[in-house]
């Protein structure tokens, strides 16, 4: 149970969390805060939040749970604004796709032994965004990864876990660095590849024929190239080392495929492709419909 | 109307063509030929073909339309077997995913001015394969690309076009080289990327966590890595120059993304991604549900 939940950045993610917690009767009150009064009023009208303020210091007064769902570029300034007035027992948490960078931001403002920040990453989304797209069941059976630090208060972590569990989410924990590496491989790299594929095709002389004949495989493969470029720019900027590592590993691998094709090594190609097929088929079986 | 259609290789593609033409009452008789009598008997039992033979020369006797749907590796030998006995007015056609290589194979056996070969590529498929997966409506609203050569008899092309139209397919024509380049970009490259992505992830030290946390984006992106490795090996071997070209273009593009990430150039990243998103969104609108 949360007394006063504050959400900085009431979009799809924060809005859906608020709606889910409302259905679970988990919060006495939910306050939204951002710099857009029109947008926040809409969130009130939609029943997503109970009230709003444009003043971060006022927002966190008497708050026990604070969700930071603002773009990474705005994080540092926001943390500076709330630090002086954040109640001593309040818990800070976030919902960003990369963890190392936000941990560094919080550390810079609150100090290296600040124990009340619980980094979190709900792995959920919709093609639409914004508070109008928020739905209460967004997190049902979705994974939420928490990455508490060695010095994070276990009770704070437990409270963030309980909050997410109330939305129907499945909770997991990982170290910060592993999270960023795993997400780089499974989410960030595929997105970069999709953007790069579309970009490559756009620049080919046979562009018009290519776009006409692009078939179902192209559609699936590039679906994620319709993702929000602002969000993905920020992910690339905030997970640079891990993403560059996986890109390099991928480029090496793709180079090996090209070499096999160049050498017309049918057996090696077949073996590599058969192995990939088997791994992917096993993965689909293992994760079923929650994957 | 076809008098005697011969299908070499009665699998999903050839079998579905036969079923569609049966429904359209387009052929007097359909004969299957391969080296597997058990398989061919099954095709008869399933009502896909009327009869079969294991002897290619016997198969093409009195045939007016011959569909070559065998693996590329078997094509040369098969062509040698049917050349001496192929009726003068018979039409040869195929259904392979690459056109330059089969054109070369036919040219090698039949000569450079053989006018009765109409290269074709039905862009259709299912995740299942084999004659048991054949269905009569596989080609409805699917594109079939014909790539007649300058010396191909226009009447032969017209007859192949009529045959495919009877299945509900949408016919298009392209030059051979353009076909291979366009398919390299829109189909072959995405498949190689999907295989390479799965392969990359399999080889990372965080492999187990990676496979556990791979989310929906990974599933979509790698769906085509569950494709038949035999077929894809053959595609890579038979479309080598075009595929190597697009891989090189893609690697260059991916390198540019990596450089932007390394330089933390948020604006350039955003612009590239926004451009890709817009192109892909336009593409989805343009092709609708047939894409």
From TrEMBL, chains A, B:
InterPro entries per record: 6-PGluconate_DH-like_C_sf, NAD(P)-bd_dom_sf, PDH_C, PDH_N, Preph/Arog_dehydrog, Prephen_DH
Keyword Oxidoreductase included in the entry's annotation: yes
Keywords: Oxidoreductase
Prephenate/arogenate dehydrogenase domain mapped to chain residues: 3-291
PROSITE patterns: PDH_ADH
Record Pfam families: PDH_C, PDH_N
Record protein name field: Prephenate dehydrogenase/arogenate dehydrogenase family protein
Native organism: Thiothrix litoralis
Phylogenetic placement of the source organism: Bacteria, Pseudomonadati, Pseudomonadota, Gammaproteobacteria, Thiotrichales
């Amino acid at each position: 149970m949360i007394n006063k939940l504050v959400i900085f950045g009431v979009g799809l993610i924060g809005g859906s969390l608020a709606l889910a917690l409302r259905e679970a009767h988990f919060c006495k009150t939910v306050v939204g805060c951002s710099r857009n009064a029109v947008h926040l009023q809409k969130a009130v009208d939609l029943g997503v939040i109970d009230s709003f303020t444009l003043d971060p210091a006022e927002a966190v007064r008497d708050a026990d749970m604070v969700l930071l769902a603002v773009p990474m570029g705005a994080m540092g300034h926001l943390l500076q604004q709330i630090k002086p007035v954040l109640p001593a027992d309040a818990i800070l948490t976030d919902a960003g796709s990369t963890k190392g960078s936000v941990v560094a931001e919080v550390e810079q403002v609150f100090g290296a032994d600040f124990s009340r920040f619980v980094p979190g990453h709900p792995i959920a989304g919709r093609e639409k965004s914004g508070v109008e797209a928020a739905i209460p069941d967004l997190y049902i059976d979705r994974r939420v990864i928490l990455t508490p630090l060695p010095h994070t208060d276990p009770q704070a972590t437990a409270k963030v876990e309980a909050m997410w569990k109330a939305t129907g989410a499945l909770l997991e924990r990982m170290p910060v660095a592993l999270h960023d590496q795993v997400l780089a491989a499974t989410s960030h790299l595929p997105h970069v590849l999709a953007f790069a594929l579309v970009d490559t095709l756009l620049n080919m002389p046979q562009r018009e024929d290519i776009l006409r004949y692009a078939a179902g495989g192209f559609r699936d493969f590039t679906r994620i190239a319709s993702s929000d470029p602002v969000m993905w720019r920020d992910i690339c900027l905030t997970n640079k080392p891990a993403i560059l590592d996986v890109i390099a590993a991928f480029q090496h691998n793709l180079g090996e495929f090209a070499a096999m094709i160049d050498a017309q090594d049918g057996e090696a190609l077949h073996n590599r492709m058969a192995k990939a097929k088997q791994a992917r088929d096993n993965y689909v079986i293992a994760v079923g419909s929650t994957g």
